[in-house]
Amino acid sequence: MSEAKLDFLDRSRAFWNPGKTQDWQDMGIDLVIDRREGYYLYDMDGHRLIDLHLNGGTYNLGHRNSELVQA
After folding, report:
1. Residue 45 structural domain
2. Tell me: the pLDDT tens digits for 1-41?
């Protein structure tokens, strides 16, 4: 795991949601989202994942819809 990812997880434990971050780590889930585009998420390791937890406008338009970004 990269130093940046470890640092982010440490800060998540300290400032965001310590229990949830630790639970995910205990289950082997080390997902840290780096960016979102269209219907995909990209983690800090460069893996492309389909976002199956889309909400509202994201469901209809995707993340960072190029037409909306240009507007």
Report:
1. 34-71
2. 788 888 988 888 888 888 888 888 888 887 788 888 888 88
Statement to judge: residues 38 and 71 lie in one domain? yes
> Locate tokens 């937890």: which residue?
53
| Domain count along the chain | 2
Q: How confident is the model at residue 52 (pLDDT cuts 50, 70, 90)?
A: confident
Residues 39 and 58 in one domain: yes
Q: Phi/psi of residue 23, each to 5°?
A: -60, -45
Taking the C-alpha atoms of residue 66 and residue 70, their distance in angstroms, rounded to an integer, is 6
**pTM assigned to the model:** 0.64
The 3-state secondary structure of 23-63 reads HHHHCCCCCCEEEEEECEEEECCCCEEECCCCCHHHHHHCE
